């Protein structure tokens, strides 16, 4: 793209976080169709087996408590039925993800005290599975260590998050990690120019957002847009592709 010779209809497939389904479900399909892909990995999930949002989900599924007190989010969240649990989970995630990681960790400890601690199940790939991806020729990228939104953190925490993540993945794979997908990923809300500068300082070359769209020759290298292929209807999916092409054609 930088050299101006990007093939027509070029497509990049990316997977964020590092969940088990990347290896179990996606990998066989990618290999069957000989598709390249990049996996952006939050390294703490690989180390401990789960991320903070998985803790919240497993706590709510397992609990017999009827509510979550307002001490967590400022409002009482009911847990009487499966539907209420789903709604309360969504409300909790929306609230917790915009906290800095220290405050979020404290809140989750309070949640454990209220709902009853559980033995958390592994939801993320193992280090061995991540290594196998690279051995098979797939690329890895960074996704911070704790999967935290960088705009909620201090400059030093940002550096620590990026560096810890990069070093972990490079030590595991013995390969350079030169790209990052910023968690949550909306440019100028979840990360900004300052965070891009921190990534450049650590020798990252590219950064991916979740701003909808396609990437073109003059797209900023640390705000490369992506779009989620959540439309299962082929016609609607095709329309989303056409929209991106027409806006940037």
UniProtKB/TrEMBL annotation:
SUPFAM superfamilies to which the protein is assigned, alphabetical: Glycoside hydrolase/deacetylase
Q: What class of enzyme is it?
A: hydrolase
Tell me the compartments it is located in: Secreted
Where is this protein primarily located? secreted
InterPro entries on file: Glyco_hydro/deAcase_b/a-brl, NODB_dom, Polysacch_Deacetylase
Keywords carried by this UniProt record: Hydrolase, Signal
Which Gene3D superfamilies does its entry note? Glycoside hydrolase/deacetylase (3.20.20.370)
Under Enzyme Commission nomenclature, its number is 3.-.-.-
- The protein's superkingdom reads Bacteria
Give GO terms: molecular function aspect only: hydrolase activity
In what residue span(s) does the NodB homology domain sit? Answer: 9-249
Protein name stated in the entry: Polysaccharide deacetylase family protein
- Natural source organism: Thalassotalea nanhaiensis
